[in-house]
Structures are given as C-alpha cells and as structure tokens.
Design brief:
The complex is a heterodimer of chains A (519) and B (465). Chain A is of the alpha/beta class and 519 residues long. Chain A contains 17 helices and 19 strands. Chain A has a six-stranded parallel beta sheet, with helices on both faces. In chain A, strands 10-9-11-12-13 form a five-stranded parallel beta sheet, sandwiched between helices. In chain A, strands 1-3-2 form a three-stranded antiparallel beta sheet, sandwiched between helices. In chain B, strand 9 and strand 10 form a beta hairpin. Chain B folds into three domains: 32 residues, no CATH class; 218 residues, Enterococcus faecalis V583 domain (Enterococcus faecalis V583 fold); 168 residues, v583 domain like (v583 fold, Alpha-Beta Complex), CATH 3.90.1700.10. Chain B has a four-stranded antiparallel beta sheet. Chain B has a four-stranded antiparallel beta sheet with strand order 11-10-9-13, sandwiched between helices. In chain B, strands 12-17-16 form a three-stranded antiparallel beta sheet, with no helix packed on it. Classes of the chains: A alpha/beta (519), B alpha+beta (465). At the A-B interface, helix 1, helix 3, helix 4, strand 4 and helix 5 of A face strand 1, helix 1, strand 2 and helix 13 of B.
Chain lengths: 519, 465
Amino acid sequence: MITKALLKPSEYHDSVSLMLVARELSKLEGIRDAAVMMATEANKSIMAEAGLLTAEADSATPNDLLIAVSAEEASVAEAALQKAEVLLKKKAAASETGEFKPKTIRGALASNQAANVAVISVAGRYATDEAWEALTRGLHVLLFSDNVSLEDEIALKKYARDHGLLLMGPGAGTTILNNVALGFANVLPRGPVGIVSAAGTGLQEVSTLLARRGVGITQGIGTGGRDLKKEVGGIMMLEALKALQQDDATQVLVLVSKPPAAEVVKTILDQVAASVKPTVICFLGGDVSALPKLPNLIATGTLYECALLAANVVQGQSGNVKELLEVENAKLAEQAKALKAKLNPNQRYLRGLFSGGTLCYEAQVIWKEMLDVPVYSNAPLPGGPSLQDSTRSYQHTTVDLGEEEFTVGRPHPMIDNDLRIRRLLQEARDPEVAVLLLDVVIGYGAHPDPLSELGPAIRQAKALAERELLVVASVTGTEEDPQKLSTQIAALQAAGVIVCESNAAAARLTGLLVSGGAQ
Amino acid sequence: MTKINDIFGKDLTVVNVGLASMAQSVSAQGVKVVDLDWQPPKDGIPHLRVTQSGVSMEDANQEVVSRIRRGGAFLVGMGIARDVIPGMHDHMILHAGPPIEWDRMCGPTRGAVMGALIYEGLAKDEEEAAKLAASGAIEFSPCHHHQSVGPMAGVVSPNMPVFILENKTFGNRAYCTQNEGLGKVLRYGGMGPEVYARLKWMETDLYPALDRALQSLPNGIDIKSLIAQALHMGDECHNRNRAATSLFLRAIGPALARTNQDNETLAKVIEFIDRNDHFFLNLSMPAGKAMLEAAEGVEGSTIITVMARNGTDFGIRLASMPERWFTAPAGKVQGLYFPQYTDADANPDIGDSTITETAGYGGMAMAAAPAITQFVGGTPQLATQTTLEMYEITFGEHENLTIPALNFRGTPLGIDVRKVMETGILPQINTGIAHKNPGVGMVGAGILRAPEKCFKDAFEALQEM
C-alpha cells in the first residue's frame, strides 16, 4: 500500500466542495482511501487516523490544502492526485467564466444593493468578523457556523437587537424566512403559524409535521442553540417573538427550545403574555406542569406533541391530544410485540444514530419516561449519562453525529453520510444490538438523495449482522422537498426498515423493543 | 429605526459566505443569491480603524477620495522642462518610478538616459553618454519628486517640451512630455538617429504649433472631461487612448488651424497625433498626477497616491506619507509579444503610467475598454470582472468617470492598502513591455498585478502611524 500526498499552499475551498472531490477520488479504480482537506489540526488528526498523513503535512498550515490518497500502486496514487487538481481547477474555471463572484460582503453589496440577508457558514474563527461585517451593513444574518464564542454571540445579538436585525445563530442550521428555506429546511406551505426555535432540527421536525397535517407557516426563525442560555438571555427568541406577535399574518406562535434557565423562562413567558395570540411552547423534556398558567399558553415536552397541539389550535380543535396519543401508542405496542418475537435473547440494546441533534434529544426525552435503564449519549439530557468515547457505544446508546467532535473539518452528517454508514456497520457487528434508530432529514441543504447511500449500507449492515437486526427510522421532510418524502420512505422500506410517522413514534417503538426484556 | 418585521414579506436577496451548497439550495428556490468567492483572511492582518494618534482612517480616506473627485485637470499650456518643472536644472534627468542610481537602472532606462544625453548634445554617442551618466555629473531624480510623470522609462531632459496641467480646484500643476508614438522610441529605451530626429521635430515643430494653439484658448482644455468621454468610447486611458486622442484632436483642432499659418506643418502635426493612438497617454497621466497630488498630506489616510516603476523597482506612496516610498522588485508582465520577441526579451514592469490606476482609471476601468483585452491578452468578460474585483480594494468611486457597461457606475477610486492586505487582491495594471536591453524599444504589451511587498510594508507603516 502506498500513500501519496500533495500540499497546495494558501488554497482555500469550502468543505463540501472538498468532500465532493474526495468522493470522486475514492471512486477511482485502485484507490483505497482519499482525503482532500484544509490542513487544520483536526483534519490532520483525521488523516492520521486514516493512515493518510505523510511528511507533506508537517509544514502545512490551516490555510493550505492537503490532498492525500492511498492505493496499491504508486502510479494509481499519482494519477489520483493529478485528477484532484483537475477537479479543483474545474471548479475554479466555472466561476471564472460565469458571473463575477465578489470576494467580500462589501464587494457583494456594492453591486447588489437589494441584498438583505447574509448566510454565513465559514469556519468559526472567521465567522464573527463576517457576521459583524454583515450586521453593520444592515443585513440580517443566518450564522450557520459553530465555534463562535459566547461573548461574540452576545455582542452580535445585542447589536442586532438594537438595530432591528435578526442574528440567527451561531450554529443555526435552519431558518425559513418569507417561505425561503435558508440552511437545512423544507418546502412548506404558507400558513398562520410563526415558529421561533433554538433547535434546528426541532424546527424542521415541527414544521414538517405541521405541513403533513396541512398547516403552513409564516416564518420559521432559528436562534441558535445557546440563545436561551442565562448568559445570552434569549435575546433573539424575544425579538423574533415580538416581531411575530406584531405580524398580522401570524396567528399562532410556536416556540421550541431545550429547557432554558429559569430567569429566561420568565422573560419569555412575560413576552408571551403581552399578546393574545395562542402560543405553543415546546421546552423539550422540560417539566411543563411547573410553568405558570397563561390564557394563551399551551406547553408541551416533545416536538411531536407540539406539532399536534399547534395544528389543533389552527384547525379550531380542542387543545387535548391525549386520546390520539393513546391510540397511537397502543398501535406501536402491538407492532413492537410482533417485532420482538424476531429477536434473540442476547439482543438487548438500542442504538440511535442521529444526524439531527434535536431529534436525538427528543428520543432521549421519550426513553427517559419509558425505560428504567440509562441511555448513554455524546449529547445526553441534563444529568444523563455521557458516553466515555463518542465513537464506541455502551449498552443503550444514542449518538448525535452532528456534534462537534464528529464535524470539525468535515461536512454535517445531513450532507455527508459517510460517518453514519461506518457507524451503522460497526453497530451491526455488535451481537447485543437489537435495534438501530435512524433519522433521515431531507429538504434543502441536505444530501440530494440520502437513501441512495443509506439504503445499500442498511442492507449491508443487516446482511453482516447474522441475526435479525431491526432498523427503525423516521423521515423529517415533506412531499414537496426535492428528495420527496414518499420516495425516501419507500426506499427505507425496501431496505427492510420500519418507518414511523415521526421521530417521537420511532423513538417510542425502539424503546418498546428493548423494554421489559426479550420475549 | 428598522424593525425585524420590515423584512417580512419582502423579496430576499441573499449574500452567501461559505459553503457553495448553501447558495445552490437558496438559488434553487428562485431566490437571488450573491455567492462570495470567499477566502480566509491572511494570517495576522489586523483591522485598522484609527491611527495611534487617534485619527479615523475612514474620515481621512473620505477626505482623500473627496479631493480626488473634486479635482479638475486642465491642459493650460506648454513649456520647456528646464523652465517650468520645479527643481529642474541643466544637468538633471528625470526618470519614472522610485529613486534609482545609474548602476541599478534597467536596460530601457539606461537607453533612454543615454538617448536623452545625446539629444541634449551633452554626449556625442552612446559610449560617451554612458560614461557621463556614470560619472556623477548628472543628477537623476524621479519625475514624482517634481510634480511630473513619465511613461515607461519616463525620461525628461532639460530641453524637452512638456505639457502643463493645472488642477484648477486646488491650484497645483503637473507636467509630462509629449508622446512619441510606439515602436523604437526613447521612452522604451530606443536609441538611434531616427529617435533623436523625431524628438527634435517634436521640439521644433510639434511643440510650437500646440503651444500657440493652447495660448489662444484662455480656459485651456478640460482633460478630465476628455477622459470621462473616452471611457464611454472604449478607452481606459492607460493602454487604450485611441478615442481620447481623437477627442483631443477635435478639442484643439480649430485653435491649431487659427494659430498656425503653415498648412504643411499643421498637416504634419495632425498626422503625427492621428497616427499615434497613445498621444493622449501623456495627458491622461499628468491629469491623474494633478488630481492625486492635491490629495496628498491627509493624516491617517490608507489610500495610495503614487504607484510607479523604474523597471527595477516598483514603488508606492501613501496620501498620509507622501515623502516615503515603499518599494519591491518590479514584476514580470504577462503579455503578448510582437513577432520575433518572447518573454525572454522583456524588461520587468516599468513607467509612471500606473498613475492612471492610482487615479481610478486605466486597469481599474478595464470594463470600459473591452477592445483592449485582446491587446493585453484576455476576454471582454474578464475585463468586466477585473473592474468589479477592483471595487473590493478601493475606498470609493468616481462621480464623473463612469462605465456604461456597469450601468454607469463610477470607476473604482482610491486604492486602500488595508483592503489590499485584507483581501489579498492586488491592483490590476495594464502596460506596454520594453526590451530589456538599451536601444531596442517596445516588444509587446500585457497585464500584471502590483507586487504585494509594497503594500505589506505600507501596511506595517500604517500600524505605526
């Protein structure tokens, strides 16, 4: 085996473009593995683990591009490196002959005075400067980037608040502004619901569940996961809430977040009380019975219930969804009973492999209620058990593959299925695993056809399991999404996956399969 | 004050900073996206806002750009270099670019110096001229130290006639010789009897004819206005001056006819100007100099007011430090060559003509001159992109100099050293190429970028300011 590398000093490309080139290279005949990455320390260690780190990397800085391939023959490796250069050049050439691409926000505004929103997804260490540049020039900002300090977030949000601008993020993956999906978001009908969410996939899950019930939205504003922390004080949720309360098109409000600090809850609820518009609040896993009673407040602890309650309000039905849930849960119990019969006594554990952080969280909320044993996670509930090593599962385990330890220097698992596929096969080899739980998030920003890659991987996992390996999944998306909900569901089913209506249902079914011992 | 609600219901126009896939998915929804060709900032480039003494760089630059914009440039007369150029004397030779002594001069500059000494009658042949030049008896000084500019070698000797331009808004003047044409000419380092004969004719026939005509025009000729018109006629007034030369001939034509009795001389003068598409270059350059010099001496400014090369070094000067040169080795021109020549024959970048870019036209206004792109190698689309890119490193835009193809947007004005360093985009330069040896002349034309080192050094000086 031969590993060859090429260092291209001061050459920058975004991580998705580089992933696409790396993917092309790995498809070449005779190539074992390939990496095309900016030479950050994190990426270097990924390459070292893959055995792709060569002496070229020693002098490389984070502004340099590193291309490495391993192959059986040196000539094949050489050819692949050349191919990489051609592919990267092709990308550059396309922009040269196409429309002019400004290099800075200032340059973009000079020739596009109508610009009103900036979507920023550059590495965290550059993102703050770009966000300031955008805000001070009067742009609303969706700050997709992670790794922005809390101090910077607070300063940016205060400036935005004082200037009537949205600063959505950092780490805001999803926003739907004027029915335009920014970041990871779905094709949704227009309607009377305005959503503000501190949880990206939470916003996607609620809005798509609403869409499947025929309920549309006015706006879906993501605030970033830290907005309701004590230090930030919910600045953006408050501002967005006020804006939607004043917005005539918005008749019902939905707020989604992990349980905030007590003082932040109070400010939010004070603002909710300032309007008569019905407001459904989902504090995921929070003790909603402890919330003060307000005439226009409906509180819940899961995304699924939140969507049901909001749909009911819009459709003029009663606020009570208990009956419906009881019926659904009874059906799931029936289904679980039949499936359990296929498992052997050794198969005791569930493994959740999530691309959406909020969905991973919601699943844990549901399991906490129904299982009397802990579920380990790299992103546990407050007080929940942490995984020692995110890359190794222990007993019941659920991992959020979108967490930082997995995404530094590589695209998000909603775009790049590679990491999840590897983990899928790893779990399949563990004889104690009874059931795998997956989320499939589609829509704009996500992989153009996730099942084209996940489908074969699931089949492969089931084949090498040498036992009945159950796979449960839900799809977050709508029929109008480019990947089409029904197409993805059909492909999952064809791969032998049990597909549930919602993430909550999928989590419940998975929990039922491992509770009460094997039968 | 704006409110968040103001964005609700409005059409979005999105600026995408980062992942191209983000831009694609927004664009797929039929929403206008401006996808940046984003590059990480260079390591260790701080954002400069105020000087150490507390002067706002933004305010200082505003003042500089405002002065350049308000400046006018009128051709008010002509004279002999020795008589009109400040500091000029009988044993002084001016040259282009930053200061340089004989032993470091490049081939074309040496050729032009030797040729000028022969033209002046100070030496009888090249050998004697070289000896004299090396003897220390001749004082060499940059044109820029004498309110002057010179294309290519930029050599001005005491007896050469010069144009006098006046910035009527601020009262300062700028000087430049008459343009000799292309090919084997002094400014490209050409030597030989035909070169001296042409220079002599320019002194004895061309100069008096033009001078007489100008004396009959009490207000002179508004050169800035001719530049503005020429930008609408396919010139960028550095490497393409065809339209501007025609406009100049129209402007001076009646006065020429009225003040010159000898029809044959008049015809030769008109013919000479008509056959030299670059005649106007020696007016567009001092026009730029006249406008820029008025903007010098503004404390705290990060804008450059001089960018010039002597064929060995490239130098820039800041509006805030007009006495100080920041230099680097002159660059290699990427060009197209006349038959029989290749880039092995080329001298590095040379001349004061980059004053045009500094003043907000020339390479900055490439989008106005699609026809020139073949001459310097490129496509009209590339020309437009070049100008759009230059807006990234300029502080402002001209008001009167505009580009039709960009919806009459003002040309990029005021190269800001901070922006050059932050973006890594270097100023675009259009230029002719001289043979590296003395005595040969022009061998081609092309484009290049200014060297980064000058801007780096200037940026460091700004941090200490």
